[in-house]
Each structure stands twice: as C-alpha cells, then as structure tokens.
Amino acid sequence: MSTKNGNEDLIADYLGEAHDYLEHLNQILLDLAEVGADWGAERVNELFRHAHSLKGLSACFGFESTNKVTHQLENLLSLIRDGKLSPQAAVVRAMFAAIDLVTHLTAEIASSGQEHAPIDLVVESLDRIARDPASFSVPADDAAGAEAAGAAPVAAGAKAGEPKAAGKAASENETVRVRMERLDKLVNLTGELVITRSRFQLVARQLRVLQRLAELNNGSQELLRGLGELRDQLLASDVDDALKTSVERVCEQAERLAAVHTEMAPAQRCVKDLDDAAYDLDGVVGGIHEAVLQVRMVPLDSVFRRLQRVVRDTADALGKQVDLDISGGETLIDKRVADELVNPLVHILRNAVDHGLEKTDGRRAAGKSPRGKVTVDSYQRGSSVVIEVRDDGRGIDPQKILAKAVEKGIVSPEQAAAMTESDAQRLVFAPGFSTAQAVTDISGRGMGMDIVESSIKKLRGSLELSSKLGEGSVFTIQLPPSMSILSSLLVSVGGTTFSLPLTEVREIVELKGASLHSVQGRRMIVVRERPMPLVSMPATYRFSNSSAKKSAAGSEHAVVFGYPGNEIALAVDRLLGKEDLVIKPLCAELAAVRGLAGMAIRGDGEVTLIVDPVSFADYALVRHQVAALA
Question: What share of the chain has pLDDT > 70, as a percent?
Fold first, then answer.
C-alpha cells in the first residue's frame, strides 16, 4: 500500500492504533518477563486481545507482513492461554522478536507506506514453536532465561523505532495527531465548564430580584415626599412636641433609606449586566462545548472503509461471492467510539459472511442470487447513532442454536424447551458459544459474539438481533455520539433526581385521565393502544417508606422507554426539564445497582443518578412480576 494513493488519512489512523497496540504488547510482555512474574490468565488474555486486534487491523489495511507475524504471535499466545505451552525463555524471546519486527514494519509504513523488512526467520521461529509446543514446555520459572528474555528486546525496540522516519511522515501530513488522553482531558474540562455555566446562570437568576431596586427607590422617594408634607403640616399646627419629634425622626430615617437606594443604583445596573453576561456566556460555552466535541467527531466512513477488505478477504477465503453495500458513512461519531467499534464490526461482518451467507450452490438451491449481499447502513436516530449490518443469508436456526447450547452446557434441556425463537437466537451472545466446527482465521478461538456485545455495552450502546430463517439476519447497534456528555430528561421521584437519556425517551404520558388497568395484580397503562407495565422507582429500588408514600401520592406523569416488546412506563413525581450532564462513574456503593449507568453533578451541586433505560426496564419488569406474585 502506498501513501500516493490518497489513503494518507487511513494510514495515519492505522499508525496511531498500531503504535498503541505495540506499546501495550511490549509493556505487558516486559512485565511478565520479570523474574518470578505470574503469567496469570488475565494478563495472557490481555496480550492475546492486543495481538488479535493488531492482526485484524493489519488485515483491514492490507499489510500482509504484519498480519502474518501477528497471526503467528496469536497462535503462541493461544497455546499459552490453553495451557499447552509454557512461557519459558525461548518462547518469550521469540515473542519479543515478533513485536520488535512489527514495530520495525510499522516504522517502514510511517516513512513510505509499505513494508520491506524480511519476516521469514521470525515467522518460521514462531511456527516451529507452535507446531511442537511439547518441546518447549519446561518449567516457566527459568530465572536466568527470563532475565535474558526481558533484556533483549529493549535494545531491539530502540533500534526499530526509527523516529526520523516517523517524523518525516508527520511533516508530510497537514493534520496533527493528538493522544486521546489529551482530548479526553479537554472534553472533561469542557464538561466542567458546562457545569460552571449552569452555576453562573443559577446565581444570575437568583440575583434578578435586585433589578427591582428601581421600584424600591421610587417608593422610598414617594414616602420621603409624603413624610415631608406631613412634617410641614405638623410644624405649622398646634400639636404635641413629642409627635413632631417622632415625625422628624421618621423623616430622617426615610432620607437615609433614600440615600442608600441611590447608592445601590449601580448594583441594579450590574445585575442587568450580569444577566446579559450570563446570556452571552451560554452561547460562548455552548459553542466551545460543541467545537470540542467536534474535534473528536469523525465520519463513520473512516470505519466503514476498513471493513471493505474484511468482507472481500473473508469471502475469498471461503470461496463465496459477496457484494458489500455501505451507506451513511457521513454520520459523525466520537473518535473513541469509532476506534472501539472497529473490532465488533469486523466480528459481525466475518460472521455474516462465514455463518450467515450460504455458498453459491446453496443459494441457487434456495432460489437466491448466487452472490450474497451484506449491507452496512448508518443513520441518526435522535442524537443516537444507529448502525445496521444486514445479510440475505440463511438466517439463524433456533433449533440448531439450542442443540449446540445444550451440547456445550450453556443451557439445560429444560431451559431450552421453554425458550422462544427470539430467546434461542440471542444465545449466540452467550459466552463461549460458537457453531464453528474448527478453529480458523475467520471464526473460533473463543472470540465470539459475547465479546462483541460486551464491547458495545462498554460504549454505552446496545446490540439487537433480528433473524428470519431462510431470509437473513440484522444486527442493530445503537450508540451515543459522545462518551462524556449526555442530553438528559431530569425527573424527580420520591425526592431524588434521576436523569434519563433523551434519546431513549419514547413518550411522556400524563397519568391524570390515562387508561390504567390491573392485570393479574400488575399495574398496566395503555399508551397509543400499546399496553405496558406502569412501574415505580420506589417499588423497584425499595425506597424508604416515607419516600415511597410521597412518590405514590405525587406521581403526575409517566415516561415511556425501553425497546419494542420490553417497553415500560415509569411513574415520576415531576418533570424537571432537559439538561446536558457530564457523566461521572458511580461511587462504590452504587456500582452494583442494576439499572444505573452513572452519576452527574449539576450546577446547583445536586447529585443526579443516570438511569440505563434498557437495564432498568429489564430489572423493573422482574421486580414488577415478583410484586404481582406476592
């Protein structure tokens, strides 16, 4: 691949991710090469994930040398993970040699866009170990060997870095690559600025009453004039001197009050200026906030272009004819979300080509075009980004899925018998589930759809599956455009403020006059001819009695959210309005509470709990059913 072909931006993306993976691989392996280091399953899995991701990344961009080396490195790590190979000194040295070679290849790509270094010696060394792991399975606590293995790569890595070549590539690029940590810090600071803006606006609203000082001043002047007239009349009349003295004293007080009001006149103007400044600040902070978020926004086309080669190479390897149709690449998404999205999409597409699409003969027999079709479509839904991956293959056979799940012990025969077709199809997301008959470059290795689903959830997204036997499958990913700022609907329940992502709010219903029913002891509400459970926060989370009674007496509205077939209406005491919140992690005491996604501190200092609509809907439905049975 050459930088002369208009792919400079893509190569820059590749280099950034490759450097990150190499840094992690090198550091973890250095730690494990220390004398007495514990090669625990978690660290080995971490090594495996980075090698696997780098292998997939290099395949997407067509860097075959890097792909071959990382594939062999992944083989060794897979054997170590399965307990078939001991990570003794010779094995560690071979892995360091592979990492150093890939580092050198990456430097070559940075300088010329191509790989030149020979890889045969390293590949053969790794392959020899993988083919005969028993010969290298000796006790892994060879201290001297480990020290040698840990020391060797340092010099080699320094040699392979080639900072001048990387610098040359950077100078030829008009963009500036900034580490995500710095952008994260900038976004977090901007989030704090949003909070400070809210506090500033709150203070400005509270001080608005001072703008009525003019009315108070006019009143005091009028009072002063009236008292002056009364004093003059009393002085001219024959009244008691004590009364005259009292009136005189009141007039003096009124004069002092009028003087104070006159002195406070500039304060009134300051309050007006403060209100205007708060209005201007709102626009400026909003602009800064939007601009900073835009810095991290990239079009999904940068992700989708990486997938084209994945589909082509997978189809070629399987001897299938596949057309890939991509649309919606102009949709913008956070760079961090885009980077984390590549691997899940690669897994979904490979599964679509491998497991979803029939071979040519099978498609002809089913009356379909001999060429299979995979469609990737992206669009905006509210402020969420939706990506659909669709194939016109055989679909997911629930009976085959259930049989495989029972065989692997994922579910019992009794559980399988009670499952619906949809439930059975969703077993493809179960950890360790795979229908692959053999481990290949395309499927197997235990890197299944459970990893895909967990990756999407880490991005605060959701993954849904719809499949019809004989017609194909659709995987729908819904993601927030940003990972740090959340547009929220604030509600009050039992004296506690909760935040619901606006993108997940389907409808707001006024409970007064609504169609309410009781079905088998469960409260139900009919919204646009759709019956759904009416749940309450106090019953779901078991609020204190006083809060529960307060909430039960004051619920005015219900907020509808959830996904089709799993919708609920949440009764709330009050709607507090819309607000952009900076998401913070939950404290240790709340981290294990189902249905909560995080927390936020608002401008007035109040802590707001952020609800995860899908998780809360699942949990609330269970609690709702339990309460009905009780």
Answer: 82
